[in-house]
Amino acid sequence: MFGQGLLKGLGITFQRLRRPTETQLYPYQQPVLPATSRMFLAMYHDEAGVPACKACMTCQTGCPDHVIRIEKDTENPKVPLSFTVNSGRCTFCGICVELCPFSALHFTGDFERATYLKSDLIYKLVDGSRATGEGEGERHGR
Amino acid sequence: MVTFNRADACAGTETVLLNIGPQHPSTHGVTHILVELSGETVVAAKPILGYLHRGIEKLAEYRTWQQDLVYTDRLDYVSQIGNEWAYCRAVERLTAIEVPERAEWIRTLFCELNRITSHIMWYAGVTMDIGTMGTPFIYAFKARERIYDFFEAVTGARMMYNYFRFGGVRCDVAPGLLEDIHDYLGGEFLELMDDLDALLLGNEIVQSRMKGIGAFTTAQLVEWGITGPFLRASGLAQDLRKDAPYGAYDKVEFAVPTSTVSDSFARCEVRMAEMREAASICRQVIERMPEGDISVKVPRLLKPEAGEVYVRTESPRGELGIYLVSDGGPKPYRFRVRSPIFYNISALPKMLPGWKLQDALVIFGGIDTSMGEIDR
Amino acid sequence: MSGLGWNTVLWLAGLFALMALTALIGVYWERKVIGHFQARRGPLHHGWHGLLQLPADMVKMISKEDVVPTKADRMLFQVAPMFVAVPAFTSLAAMTFMPGVAFVDMRHGLFFVFAMQTVMPVGFALIGWSCDNKYTLLGGLRAAAQLISYEIPMLLAAMGVVMSVGSMRLTDIAQAQASGPWFIVRQPIGFVIFSLAVLAEINRTPFDMPEAESELVAGYHTEYSGMKFGLVQLAEYTALLMGSYLIATLFLGGWNMPLLPASPVWLFLKTVLLMTSTMWFRATFPRLRVDTLMEMSWKILIPVALANIMLVASLMLVLPKRWF
Ligand code: SF4
Ligand code: SF4
Description:
The structure holds three protein chains of three kinds.
Chain A: H1 4-18, E1 41-43, H2 58-62, E2 68-72, E3 80-86, H3 95-99, E4 105-107, E5 122-127, H4 136-139
Chain B: E1 16-20, E2 32-38, E3 41-48, H1 56-61, H2 65-72, H3 80-95, H4 101-129, H5 135-155, E4 164-165, E5 168-169, H6 175-186, H7 188-200, H8 204-210, H9 218-223, H10 229-232, H11 240-243, H12 264-288, E6 307-315, E7 318-326, E8 332-338, H13 340-346, H14 348-351, H15 357-367, H16 371-375
Chain C: H1 6-37, H2 53-63, H3 74-91, E1 96-98, E2 101-102, H4 109-130, H5 134-165, H6 170-179, H7 183-186, H8 188-201, H9 213-216, H10 226-251, H11 264-284, H12 290-318
Helix pairs in contact in C: 1-2, 1-10, 1-11, 2-10, 3-4, 3-10, 4-5, 5-8, 5-12, 8-10, 8-12, 10-11
Bound molecules: iron/sulfur cluster (2 copies).
């Protein structure tokens, strides 16, 4: 009937005034993320600080977006000299974590990495002595 | 330049070309429709596509079969699981991988949850189109957020899940979570649905704006290649979940909501009913989910035999097809998507003329576009 | 009328302050109220519960670049907002808050308000035309058409009240409700028509076709930025205030309250309540279609309003004077 639905609608919106709001007060209150959340990548290290990565290159080849770039140590091919993640290209798909035979990679709950420069999104999980250029981002063109 | 046939009706006066989109408050995504108006009546309309073209079909040819799965999420970014499923089914048929029973049930569960979130997105869009300040939109998004919380707890992401694997799913669902989903869909969600129903279907202003608007016959819709709820609202119960069952759809009870009125309001009714049906499917799936494996072992570098396959699924927007050609290598030779909305939106030049500008937007809202899938 | 001199200056300052405050507090209040209707919180970050959002918005509005589209008719583009803003502000002058407490206690206050509002459609049409933009053109024409068609039922509905009071002075109208029942009880049909017409007149949901953001981007003020946009906004909130004030005075007893002493506080509360309920409507309803809107005015409201006048007139003859 005419008007009844309108009144009902008004009633529904009015009820919401009394209920608690749904707003997430994000910068003031950190959201609680489930443990499975896929945010920025990190690597496990043992007690001595040695990274768990064995430089097998599986993740580098498995990543669909050429995010990961690993440089092997020339003397010791089982040790990564540097492990660069160009997270600006990362789709957080989780393939690298899933593929790693040594379970060296994992996702953290850290999602607050907004930067002003794209280049700031490139970070290293393993940083050897040799200064390396930027990751794959360079090669795939800015 | 676009050419239009001027209708005889407006001879002597000038028509106006009006751009709706690509940057426009009522376009869903980056839709661009060029309409020709005589007064406020549409005499011609032309959708202009390509603003969201990311070349996914081409990208897929340069990535391995497994890597392509990541990109299917990004096709129709409001019903991601549906796309993953379509692609996985295609590859599974190509390589003859058997999917374990439990995996099929889990897939059905998440596909239906995704159908709800996708329809909520439509609900939000359509209520904004008819000019609410976004109140029903925000109420509906509360449900969407809750369901996305479930998704995040299982898959780790809120939108781009990358959850399905060839021959199963990536990880199992915790029993506690299944109970949560069941409780939510059986209680709070249905209450919210009543509110949403009242705010949209029960509202007389909405009825006055939608009833009789965009009434097309079934024959017209079939001719234009329309699928999905838009077609079902005209009385044709065409639903691939029933017609060519996959997953666990042949083992659960569900109705295919249809309407015989075939106007914009009927489309709303059908979609609202589908949300309730989807919730009921989810609850049945949770109640009857068998135990067992969730995936089978698949070689890391998949090399299907040379051949081609076309798989159809029922996405929330219509018939989503994936066509794959393999040349026996580690990468697809051709990856093609039959996007339901592309066919639906292609009919706009035939649908819109004759309606008022405001009606045209209501009709357009009934299509439920998602540009990610059209432009790919 | 108050004489010239300090008194006038003070009243003018008061008028100006009222105008600016309504717009500013109106915006803040609307954002908060709609936020809570939508299960959100509204402005929150700047200051206590987002209160500093007000001055921030004002500074932003004033300091923004004033963009004039290249193809716009420059002269009209600059002048057109005045056609909307000036009548809206001027109509505030007719407000009375208590017997004897008024900006200008006009003998034909109601007439003056309506006369001022009749100028506004011209402004909307000019704005729509001057920008050389299709959205503004459609929005401006819609606004003009809507305002013109809803002025008639509004006037006709007010006519019933004027007939029964026998005066167009707002003080008299409010005073007439001091002893007898309010006009909402005496003329419920008139009240409904008047409120609907006011809603349409101030372009609020469900009658906000001219601004229809889902089809016309922002309607007639699409091209305006900076202080010109501010002026149009200011005019809209002033119109909202004036509309709520008129309903409160004409039908809800103005400053009178049964059993309690008359005071401007009641008037203020009623006005705020009415303004808030327009926000409530805005939070709930979608908008009508243009042709339904016009049909509603010409085919329903105007005939009913005319019938209402006849009804009031015949009741005035039949019933005792105290009631009508
Ligand atoms: S999450 Fe995906 S895109 Fe990101 S580094 Fe791992 S494999 Fe590459
Ligand atoms: S897959 Fe694991 S071990 Fe191999 S390179 Fe990557 S992180 Fe290192």
